[in-house]
Amino acid sequence: MIPSNKAPWLCCAFLLLLPATVALAGEAKSGYEYIKPASRAMQDDDFANPGLLAVERGQVLFNSKQHGTGKACAACHGGDGAGLDAKNIARYPVYNEDAADIVTLQQQISRCREHNAGSKPLPTDHPELVDLETFVRNRAIGAAVNVQTDGPMAELLQAGKQLYNTRYGLIDMACYHCHELYPGQMIRGQKISQGQGNGFPAYRLGTGEITNLHQRIQQCLSLMRAEPFAADSEEIRLLGLYIMSRSNGLKIETPAVRY
Amino acid sequence: MQLYKKLILALLACLPLSGMASGQDGLPDDYCRWNVVEYAIVEPLCGLAGDVQRGREIASDGYRGNCLACHELPIPGIEAYGTIGPPLTGIAARLSVPMIRLRVVDTRNINPMSIMPGFYRDPRLINRPGEAYRGRTFLTAQQVEDVIAYMATLK
Fold it and tell me: Which residues from B are below 8 Å from A178, CB to CB?
């Protein structure tokens, strides 16, 4: 018998623990497992996957002197990006000691363009940067996502998780609600996925556009009738980091086909 | 006191029940207060009467109620239902109208972890609403009563 004076607290503790136990039960599954068979077939066929167009555009940019002087990415990394290390790409977002901050793959590409090739800076998520990001990430297709979770990252991931578990917008749901509690259930005609990051940038059937993870988070927040976090905001970068860390071990599928 | 009664009291202690939507500063002028009694809202919002036909339309409308996103509903010709919430066929045989009203208005008075949006939740409790949605409820009081009138027919 539970002592009467403890009952309320035990009950509260139970309510708080319940979701945690549900979340612990699952293993990471790629969004590929949740999309319809026709969408899987589209992703698997290089001639049918519209995301490959972004890879091709990215490769053209990679091989050209963009916006100014300097040199093409290909001058150092090879025309097909063969000089890039797939295992290193799979580690992004990474922690940069000098900046004492996280660096996303797109930020790294931007830095490289500006510092090593002297190109004119482009705003975050400019279509050309997304194409370059798609091309570079695609070089690591098949590599396992491997985001650092210890050291200085631990605290940042905790902050990202807190944002992930926060409700947003008039629809008032957290990322957590759909992507931790209800993967596999139907929302109207679509199966809810775990919201993993391993396929991004991905071609979205819902919008017909190549979309990186940060853009996808913004679109999800807009769908929640919430004010999306800005492209460069601390919040979107922490959310992106946390989501990618949930994908650790999943193989990179860029460009995946997703709803 | 028996244990189950204590547990119920404990639940009550955990939840922000009546009073959370009581008229304080910052509420839109047309927002009607509501009170929770015994896990239910007895009085119709703003004293309004609902319309069954309008309620059915709101429930199946993808932008307004969009109940179908998460729930099965006995509406012919619709094939894709969500499976997140319980089916609503027969809901009025399981719950009284005041109990349905609380679940539509703000079900987190019953389950704080619920994924279900509060369709007439106190707008001040909404985090980061989009610009177009600030100070608004998901549905109007009339729309909520329409949906409830429709739900009451699902026996």
Answer: 115
Q: pTM of the full predicted structure?
A: 0.87
Distance (Å, whole) CA B1 – CA A148: 53
B14 part of contact set with chain A, CB < 8 Å: yes
Closest chain B residue to A20, measured at CA: B113
CB of A100 less than 8 A from some CB of B: no
Note whether A169 contacts B: Cβ–Cβ < 8 A. yes
Fold of B3-151: Cytochrome Bc1 Complex; Chain D, domain 2 (1.10.760)
Q: Give the closest-approach CA distance of A92 to chain B in angstroms.
A: 28
Nearest-Cα distance to chain B for A165, in Å, is 11
Q: How many Cβ atoms from other residues are within 10 Å of residue B117's Cβ? A: 24
CA distances to A28, A62, A88, A239 from A166, in Å: 21, 38, 31, 11
Phi and psi angles of residue A258, each rounded to the nearest 5 degrees, phi first? -135, 155
- What is the set of domains in chain A, with CATH numbers? 28-35+145-258 (1.10.760.10), 51-138 (1.10.760.10)
ipTM, 2 dp: 0.82
Per-residue tokens: A115: 């510092």
- Taking 50 as the pLDDT cut, the residues of chain B under it are 1, 3, 7-9, 11-23
Mean pLDDT for all residues in chain A: 91
Residue from the list A7, A170, A178 with its beta carbon closest to the beta carbon of B10: A7
